[in-house]
Amino acid sequence: MQRYTLTDYEDASPATRSVYDDFMRTTGATEVPIWLQSLGHSEALARAYWERAKGTLFSGNLPLPLKEMIVFIVSARHGARYCSACHAQNVLSLDKALAFADLQSFLASDSACMLPRCYQNVVRFASKVVADANGLEDEDFEELMEEGFTREEICEIIAVIDMATMFNVYTSSLRLDLDPQYRAIL
To answer: How many beta carbons lie within 10 A of that of residue 78, not counting itself?
Structure first.
């Protein structure tokens, strides 16, 4: 059963088109992704989801490649096929030192050693949050601070994890099909 309908650009209301336009302008995309088209029936929902993603990913102090890696890791831990594929592609487009096989290897072995050093502790932290946010210890925060992250940046890391979780629930519940440019990693 198809659990969603898509609203393409031509059929979208003017208000929804403005959300689509903002997405494409901000991301440099030439097409509206399936996740956003699946919200296109409601300008309010499309705007809310897009504003959450835009505010979390495209502002703040953390570099975008690190944020994309966090979303990828969280999505993979949740088994979110759509988000893990999308953000694997984003990680690879932003960090040319990594290859698709590196991400597959990481997921298979759970070894962060092939990731850039600054990613390693963040990946461990994000994995702990996904497993049990209530189980975090002060030491988990101290480890990130020793790596050079401020308290504000740690809050930003948590906000990225939270945003990813929200999108994971949405895309997985609907079983969104992958956009043509995404390659399934799970």
So the answer is: 19
Residue 117 has, within 13 A of its CA and on its CB side, a CA count of 4
Q: Backbone phi, then psi, for 31, in 5-degree steps?
A: -135, 155
125 burial via Cβ count (<10 Å: 0-12, 13-18, 19+): buried
CA distance 168 to 68: 14
37-79 residue pLDDT tens: 999 999 999 999 999 999 999 999 999 999 999 999 999 999 9
pLDDT of residue 172: 98
Helices 64-78 and 151-174, interaxial angle, to 10°? 50
| Cα maximum dimension of the chain | 52
**Measured CA distances, 108 to 59, 103, 111, 186 (Å):** 31, 9, 8, 10
How many C-beta neighbours within 10 Å does residue 96 have?
Answer: 7
Contact 106, 119 (CB under 8 A): no
Residue 169 three-state SS: helix
